[in-house]
Specification:
The chain has 203 residues and is mainly β. The chain contains no helices and 16 strands. The strands form five sheets. A four-stranded antiparallel β-sheet has the order 3-4-5-6, with no helix packed on it. The chain is globular. The chain starts with a strand and ends with a strand. About 3% of the residues have low confidence.
């Protein structure tokens, strides 16, 4: 599998450079805040750090035993948010129901904290199903304030969806509520300066 970088002032196809190194399918690519580096995640159980201008592989983060679903730099470039798909797999559910773990790494690849671990979900009646109450949609806020995520909390008849903010050192017990609604939040997108956000809900 290969990665390729395209731009405007190049040949007709816009191809600048090809990056070769992963032994499995590439599942995600994310640029560093300054655009000089890129992180690629793969089914080969590695995350790779690339120098974009030279197409050079700088570092391979190994030690993971499962498929890397995604990896993304924090706005200050000091941390990496990653999600892996873990075993056991099951033919009774799509890959979205497979166990997964979301965690924070430092620039050296050391896991600093685990944000969420989800067991195998084999349908709504699975004994492991939390029916949507788990933290979800982890993403870096562009203003550098920390991580944004969504969670549904409360009693059965008084539940609300909440937009949360998690600042370093990323202790989930210290997350703060930014906004909440009785409706299900599908997505949240922040302005670049973090002063506002646009959310979509399901009624």
């Amino acid at each position: 599998p290969q990665l390729f970088f395209v731009g405007k002032a190049t040949n007709d196809k816009g191809l600048i450079r090809t990056f070769t190194g992963h032994e499995g399918a590439v599942t995600s690519v994310a640029f560093s805040p300054n655009g000089r580096y890129a992180l690629s995640a793969s089914t080969d159980k590695t995350i790779k750090l690339w120098a974009v201008a030279k197409g050079k592989l700088i570092r391979t983060y190994k030690g993971h035993t499962d498929i890397i679903l995604s990896a993304a730099f924090s706005p200050d470039g000091r941390h990496v948010l990653a999600t892996v798909i873990e075993r056991p797999f099951s033919f009774r559910t799509a890959y979205r129901g497979f166990p997964r773990r979301t965690f924070i790494m430092d620039k050296q690849g050391a896991v600093l904290t685990t944000l969420n671990e989800r067991p195998l979900q084999e349908g709504r009646n699975s004994p492991n199903s939390n029916r949507g109450s788990e933290p979800r949609a982890f993403a870096w806020r562009p203003d550098g304030a920390g991580l944004s995520f969504l969670v549904r909390e409360g009693e059965d008849d008084e539940q609300s969806d909440r937009v949360m903010l998690l600042a370093a050192p990323f202790d989930m017990d210290q997350a703060q509520v930014v906004a909440e609604t009785e409706d299900r939040i599908n997505s949240i997108t922040y302005t670049m300066d973090g002063s506002g956000a646009f959310g979509s809900i399901s009624k």
